[in-house]
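Write out structure tokens for GNAT family N-acetyltransferase.
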Amino acid sequence: MEIRPTTDQDLDVFVGTLHAAFGRFPETPAEGGGGVWWSAFEMDRGLLATTADGRPVGTAGAYSFELTLPGEILVPAGGVTAVGVLPSHRRQGLLRAMMRHQLTELRTRGEFLSVLLASEALIYRRFGYGPATYTQRLTVRRHQAALALPRARAAADAPATGSDTGTVEVLRRAECGETLEEVYDRYRRAQPGALSRPHRWWALGAGQPPISRAPRYVAVHRDTDGVPDGYASYALGESDTLTVDEIIAADDAVFTALARFVLGHDLVSQVVFKHFPPEHPLRWQFADFRAGEVSGHTDWLWVRLLDVPRALTARGWFTDGELVLDVDDPFLGEHGRYLLTVRDGKADCVPTDREPDLSLDVSDLGSVYLGGTAPSTLVRAGHIRAHHPGAVTLADALFRAERAPHCLHWF
């Protein structure tokens, strides 16, 4: 069995092998090669596994993304995608070999973080990935969708908290692609856990709506100066259900304005927010707290640290303190003990022989890295070992983010 890098000439074979691995057939690309989810593949980052006689039996790919860390820090991250093995060649160690090969390639490129969306939750933890952001669906019955007046008020000369003085304009997706790209890019730079959407994704219509060319209406929010600062991509489907692909907003007031807009749509029985941040305050803004029904709470972005000291010193921190982390990486056969020292928002991380405060797997470190999973949760689950009670309290304080991480991008 051979694992080799791919080139642009391998695209058709790569796509065909990937679809065969999942028992599917490729769509027909639009003229010019765009309009399908794989049109943004970076073939210089792909891997193709072949048999001794040259038959393709496995694939693995990666995108070049920027990931926003706590502290509004942008770092490169390899976005693992298109991982598949033909049913005839599973349970033969091919997936492990491809993942090991890929992690080596990511390190060679100088990337110290890798991310993915897991098709099955059981697969990727053994390769060192841990779930780091979460998402859910919110279904709101329109007859219960009234928003309450804010009970708290700001200073006497300021507007009510969450108030909005902007405007909303309805456009078709084809009319506002550049605006969507600009608004999303500003949003993702400030949102922990968000990924970049490279220009070529928008240009090719790669991915899911609103990046794709699927018909959608878009409610574009503009501030008092007329500058776009938010949007909601949506479509009306069967059973009078309006489905919101995503709301991108500069702040909570803009999000509320866009939510109010879609919730007030005529001839709609319910509104479904497909990709709703778990800790978002919208549910608390309904006059009827039971107006929104949460479902489908699930993991989204999985994170893998490839260089522990670089990763820990890259993100921003919001509490001072010291922790000794004993980190095991069984898939790569590595083990390290590190002294993490945080002062004034910056971290130093160096090898140490001091006694550990926490012992953990690299996948668990990936889960807590963005602040979306508290270390204490994994201690209680029996995955992280705390060597003394104070270590848990300090770890929770250290690893928190300025706000909950959330990732909307599908890849």
